Records
---
Amino acid sequence: MKKIIKYKAVTILMGCLLVWQGLMAQKVAVKDGTIQVDGKELAKIVKIKDKENFGLTSTYEIYALNGEKLIIAAIATDFAENSNNNGSYYYRLSFLTNQQQAIFRLSKLGPEKSLATLIGQSGIIVNNQIDPKMFTEFLAKKSVNPPIAMEYKLVERNHLGTPYIKGKQIYQGLTLIGEFKDISTRPEYDTYEFSTAMGLVVARVNFTGGINAQNFVVTTYKDKVTTRINIPTQGKYSISQQPGVDRNEMALVRIADWLAKNWYL
């Protein structure tokens, strides 16, 4: 009996040692802009200070060793701070080759190292590409869904008319129903926030393709939902050269129409 107990104890100890060794094997470091895992180069990381908040935060870009841009990590300011966890930022990671976005926590004390560790230990980068299976597991295990639900009242107006834009304001009929703000930080895609006439931000939209974009990633804060929507164009548009007209105005009109029809704006 004693031999059996001793054998089980040794087996458990060996199992713990194997787990410990596995964890220790994932040693991640950042040296000269390169993410290294166990001393082996995995990817390049570039830090870009955010001008809109005087460089207090930064955006990070992760490149494969062959130079292909794989990930953009930008601070997500559209979520409420967690009073029980004030040691981290919410960051929105855009996985360019997968065309997906997700929210993660990164340490405020060292977001660059925190990001490098997150990606380095995930195992998602394999042979300069993002491995689909590892990526799915990574999202399931590490991404977060911060609470952003809110309640608000829509402006009373006639809902039959199609919304239109004047400057940065959105009207339906003669009624001001909202506003939009260009918060784009990267040339690869455009990002806008939509708010009520009282200034409450109710949606965030990301898209590529400029004024002729048809696919949009929309986050609506009322119901905490991020979804990909398709809004076909009625033709091909050219960027307006008129002063005071947003470069993506026709795309923004279609987004505003979708938000109004779905009772977000």
---
Amino acid sequence: MVNSLSITLINVLGLSSPSHVEQIISNQKALLKLNEEYTSTFDLTPSFIIFNIISENNLQATGSLSLESLSNSKSQTLWLRCKDTSSSSRDIKIKITVIKNISESRNDECPYLTLLSSGKADDLISKRLEERLQKCEKKIMKINFEPDAPPRLGTEVKIYEAENLTELDTGRLEGIGGDQIKKQVKILSEEVKKIGLNTVQEHRDELRNQVTERTSQQQDFERFTEDAVLEVTELISEMWGLEEQRTAVMQKIMDEENRIRENHIEIDTLNGQLAGLQRDILMMKALRVRYKDLENLYSSEENFLECSKKAKSVLAKKFEDGKLAADVVRGKNEKLIEKLCNEAGEYDGKLKSIIGNEKGLAEHNQNLRNALSELKVKLSDKSLEDSPDVSLASNDRYSCISKLQTLQTDAFEHDQESKLKYKSALDQKHTSYETLINLYKTLENESQSCLSKHLEKYLSTNELTFLEQSCCIQGDISNLTESLTKFLKFYASSNKSALGYLDSTSNQILKETVNIKDQCNKINDIMNNVVEKDSEVDHIKAVMGEIKLRHPPFIPKLDDPIDVALFEFIKSCEEPIPIPFTREESGIYLFGTKRIFLKLENGNIVIRIGGGFTNIQNFIEVYTPIELQRQEEVIEETNPQFRTSQARFSQSPQKGMSPQRAVRIIQGVVEVGSSGTPLKSASPFRKTPNKK
């Protein structure tokens, strides 16, 4: 759709300069949208140029320019402004460049023709050379090879042949014309051809000899590459044979380890059965001891009955004698009461007399006080310092004070000596305890160092064998690569087919070496896994041994009914209790780290918790997970690798077996159904709570 436009043509013919036109158009740039893209097309007619302005596939403006205004124009640029009077009110400008016709301004006359016709060719040549030399930074010699270029006037043309060619220099070359240079070049080329025809046959023979040598070398190289490929294949087959032997040896080692593991399991089962038999034997011995105790009790009760009968008759006699003695004592007591009544009357009289004399004593006391005050005054005046009575009294007082001080110092020294003895005894106890702990620690460190040395020795031997094998392989490969590189350098100029074949063989050898290195790395990984598994097995054995020490067989105390009832309850449980009951005193036990109180109530065991009692089943269900968690924390503090070993032992680390379950599995394997109240451990690292 063509919009209604008012077309204004700015013709530069009537203006002073094209810059004025650009200034007029630039004042209207504010109305244009600079971000829009415009496309202009035009149609040329004999009298007009028609313009079409397109933006976003829409016709935005159209205009025409008359060609009559361009006929006498000397400027090179015209501007066409199309103004839209609709709602947008924007200017669209078009720049037109006037291109002059070259044919109109072309002049066919040669500028140098007048100089040549006047016979001044030397001036023309010298002028052109000077102009060119001025334009160039360096002095370059220009030679004209035009066929009609005449020689310089007044110069002789010398003919140059192969003998006097060395006399030609730049100055003489500039003085020679183009046709003479062509003739000289033609003569020299003919002489060169004549000279070269004699040695063509020799060059041909040399080339044939080189071709025969090249073919023989290529055949030798092919034979060598075939031999090298055969050697490499033999080495690879030997490597595969060694690899198969190694896998067979590793399979034998794994079979032996499985057999050892099965033997350990059988040993553990036999130990469990042995523990069960020992428990039955202990039960039989306990019953036998109980029956013997009952027989001894029966005989002792009979003896006690006879002795009690005899004692009864003796007591009856003594009772009669005591009755008679009591009657005698009663009579004496009556007489004594009468005597005491008389003495009480006398004491009443004396008391009354004492009360009467109390006033006199008070007056006497006042007099004594007055005398005492007078004595104090005299003492203050120091008038009685030489009195013998006062000196004796002071001496007696000081002697008494000194005796009291000596007694006090003796008592204090005795107390200090007793404290020092007690302190020294405590120090000796602590030192002995610390020495025992240090001995335990040194023993454990020595065992750990021995294990680490054995492991290092095993690892070093394995690494040594692996390094020897890898060195042999690398030596063979290095020899092959060196020989191949030598032949590559020697036959670098051979055929492309030979080079391609050599590249393919070298790539194949490199691939085989990479495969061999990968196999060696896999073997190294397998050996490392074997070493890790061995260390894990040793660690699991140590943990199982520690669990065995923590859970010794049950030995009940027969004279304690609570301990016997606890044994019967543990024996009746279907699954073993993972946390042992450790007896401290009658009715006081340790359940892991918790100190508890047990008692029998209607034949059942109850446990005191806080202010009340609960049955043993509820107590075990509640506190077993707590104590297992504490044991796990202690084991993780002492042995950080226990969790990883435990996860690998269970063969399902991704599923996330709980530590409690793993501990139960290990304890079940160790104990094999045996349970009970173990004896209190005598290890110095075992911490027992203080008794309340």
---
Amino acid sequence: MSENPASNNCCNSRLEYTGAFLLLRLWLGLRTLLAGVEKFESGGSYSFENYYKNMGRMAQGITSASFMPLWMTKFYAMSLGYLLVLLGLAVLLGIKSRVSLFVTGLLYVSLSFGLMAVQEGEGVAWLGMHMVMFAGALLLVKYERLALWADQNN
């Protein structure tokens, strides 16, 4: 009895795609989660007070260096950390990965816009690399096998 090498290749490449997606999902989820958590830090301690102080400074800095009004940057900044934590957990745990990856990608587009508005080229390039990873993860999401709440179309 001989093995069919074509079917063996199919299973191996499917496993490789599943592994590639899992690595991307874990990295992007951890990166997003920790980007949110770090918004609560000041001087080595984490608190809501630190969060609102940090985000207020961020909003003021963006407003002073760009065309965006304070009300807009403040609204964005005050919700940013919570969104990053929530979406980071969703991506990390595999909760509706297709949707959570897409929405998180949109959040990173908005972060890129803010950095473009203040002419922060290095940060824009860094976020651009994140966007490439989100796009790759969205292309590979159909190979997801380990998820807390998988998409219906996988």
